[in-house]
Amino acid sequence: MNVGITLLVSYFLNFGFIAFILFFDRRDSPKRFSWLLAITFIPIAGIMLYLLFSGNFLLRYKRLEKSIRHAEDIFSPLQAELDRKAEKRLASHDPALEPCARFIRLNRHYAGAPLAYSKTVYVFTSGEENYRTLFAEIRRAQISVSLSYFIIRNDATGRQLISILAEKARQGVEIRLLYDHIGSLRTSDALFEPLKKAGGEVRKFFPVTVLTPYSLNYRNHRKIAVIDHRAGYFGGINIGDEYANCSPKQRFLWRDTQIRVTGEAALLLEKCFLGDWYSARYKTRQSIAPEKSRIVSAPPEKEEQDLPLPSVCITDVPLQIVTSGPNDVKNDEIRDALLFLIAHAKKSVHIETPYFTPDEVFFSALKIAALSGIEVQIILPGDWDKFYVKLAAMPYISDLAKNGVQFFHYNGFIHAKMFVIDGEIASVGSTNIDTRSFSLHFELNAFFYSPQFAAAAEGIFRGDLANSTPADPQAFDRAPLCKKAVCNFFKLFAPLM
């Protein structure tokens, strides 16, 4: 009798969730269909997976919104000033911004991203050179160091960072370190003890516990570093030996991209950091005043000659920093910005991404661009770090290649997330071309409106292209039937990866 009741309850639970997905889940059909399959084929367990991974149950939404508003209050004078300057420049038909005016307004009104200028922009194309500069800049910090990473490894690179931060904390510098709990799940809390004992603050983003399992799927994928309110870093590089190609377990070359900005742009990065920081342990509004005073008291821009910086420097670069995340379920700000650029491309769309399982709209945008005569070239890894993502990507690659999209496999693992449109607008950040980045992760991308920066980005793309092998457009068609079946099976679950 008890077994019969259990089965009956299970049946109605499954039926109820299927009905909920059919009639109340507002996302696009492929995502809904994937969840319908999961709940149908693995009853009850599928429901638990839906609760944990669907993206519909962000229980910390109100807390996060308070944190974001708190950070926005701190930087409201800066944002108002940037908006005034931007409108003045756009109204005067500034020739440097006029070609991008519609796109700039889209990001301002849709994503709340003000137009800012970076006094200098440097591009790092490896973890080795990024760490060399970042660690040197942290060592000379005078006021504060704010860091946020998806992954911090307990390896030589991670321990070196913690050692430097602990030393600065002992010197009285304010140290704030945020890391994603799931991204750094294998990292022991013991790694951070020296920093905590030295007076630095360490927080986990959305820690997952037995009592709070529903945050499992909402991860902070951003990589942000801000030193003394004046210099900021962002991109694809986390903290770990593999990013510096010095891990003894590493099987392939790791290629990545990180950006260093200064001035207004660095302050906007800090605003994003603070929204995430306060959500990890929300503070009251009473802390706004001292926070503002610390930022206002930031030291003047230091000379950069003594830092081990890359040789190429682009100055006075206009840009917008766009963020997205599951706290805004109706909008995918970064994805939609990229869609706008692809749809309005006149000559070329060049992309570097480590993962490629685009949703239906992004797939169609790339297909239409290629069929209309736009050169669409995409560099993917030659060596993938996740076998199932590679298998899921193969049908997408095959279908788009038949429609004129050119794919290339980098000789190693390329983790960079870069987009260059017409050699005029470039974007670099943490966003991959997959549903997880577009809708479930907290991400950050910058859009650069500088011909000089776009030329530098295009040069990097061409260099990576020279170190890549053209993908065989017929590879999937010639694959054994069993491999095709496995690929198509994993493609079904691409919206959940």
From TrEMBL:
One of its GO terms (cellular component) is plasma membrane. It comes from the Bacteria. This is Cardiolipin synthase. It comes from Candidatus Avitreponema avistercoris. It is an enzyme of class 2 (transferase). Keywords: Cell membrane, Lipid biosynthesis, Lipid metabolism, Membrane, Phospholipid biosynthesis, Phospholipid metabolism, Repeat, Transferase, Transmembrane, Transmembrane helix. GO terms for biological process: cardiolipin biosynthetic process. The gene is cls. It is found in: Cell membrane. SMART domains: PLDc. Its main location: membrane. Its EC number is 2.7.8.-. The chain crosses the membrane at residues 6-24, 36-59. Residues 216-243, 410-437 form the PLD phosphodiesterase domain. GO terms for molecular function: cardiolipin synthase activity. The keyword Transmembrane applies. InterPro entries: Cardiolipin_synthase, CLS_N, PLD-like_dom, PLipase_D/transphosphatidylase. It is a multi-pass membrane protein.
